Amino acid sequence: MRFFMIDKIITWDVGRYAEAVKNVALSEDFFDDHFPRRPVMPGVLMIEGMAQVSGLLLEASLLSKYGKDAKAVLTLLERTKFRDIVRPGDTLVYRTEVVAVNENGGKVSVQALRDGQPVVTSGMVFAFKTVDDPLLGEKRQALMKLWMQP
Predict the structure, then answer these.
(1) For residue 37, what is the DSSP state?
(2) How far is CA 119 from CA 11, 13, 140, in A?
(3) What CA–CA distance (Å, rounded) separates 111 from 85?
(4) How far, CA to CA in Å, does 88 sit from each of 10, 18, 19, 20?
(5) Are 79 and 124 in contact (CB under 8 A)?
(6) Is the dihedral of CA 52, 54, 57, 61 positive or negative?
(7) Which residue in 8, 34, 65, 87 is the catalytic one?
(8) What is residue 29's DSSP assignment?
(9) CA pair distance 114, 93, nearest whole angstrom
(10) What is the pLDDT of residues 77-95, one digit of tens each?
(11) Is 137 a residue whose pLDDT tops 70?
């Protein structure tokens, strides 16, 4: 199973910041076990959503600044704090801001917000890895087109 933890990109400023939305639905498979009769979104999946939008932003920033095409791989979490639980029906906004980017990797400051209040905050460090897979590139472009529709 592949998890896409973002539903829509709502703000996109390459090299600076981005925002994406995740609508948390009771029909998500992970709620079957986490937890029965008391569904709570796993923290690791909130981290995954934050990493997905942050990685996309850093990849676009690398391409824009250095003309290089590579995939961002999460390598480190810094000062990660979980401030509240997330339940079905909640809407999360993942807000990520580029702190630094170079040819080897990048760093972002990111948070998941519910109703404008932080639920998770973290610093994330990524390394860039060159992947020679045209099919992966095509799939990524199709997803970006879908996520950025008005």
Answers:
(1) T
(2) 19, 23, 28
(3) 14
(4) 21, 24, 20, 18
(5) no
(6) negative
(7) 34
(8) G
(9) 7
(10) 999 999 999 999 999 999 9
(11) yes
**Which tokens sit at 32?**
């079957």
Tokens read off for 135: 């099919």
- The reply to whether 14 belongs to the active site is no
What's the whole-model pTM score?
A: 0.95
Residue 8: what are its φ and ψ, rounded to 5°?
A: -160, 140
Closest CA relative to residue 61, chosen from 111, 112, 22, 99: 99
Tens digit of each residue's pLDDT (9 = 90 or more) over 49-75: 999 999 999 999 999 999 999 999 999
What distance in Å separates the CA atoms of residue 50 and residue 93, rounded to the nearest whole number?
A: 9
**CB 59: neighbour CB atoms within 10 A?**
22
Q: Phi and psi (nearest 5°) for 72? A: -90, 130
The owner of tokens 């519910």 is 114
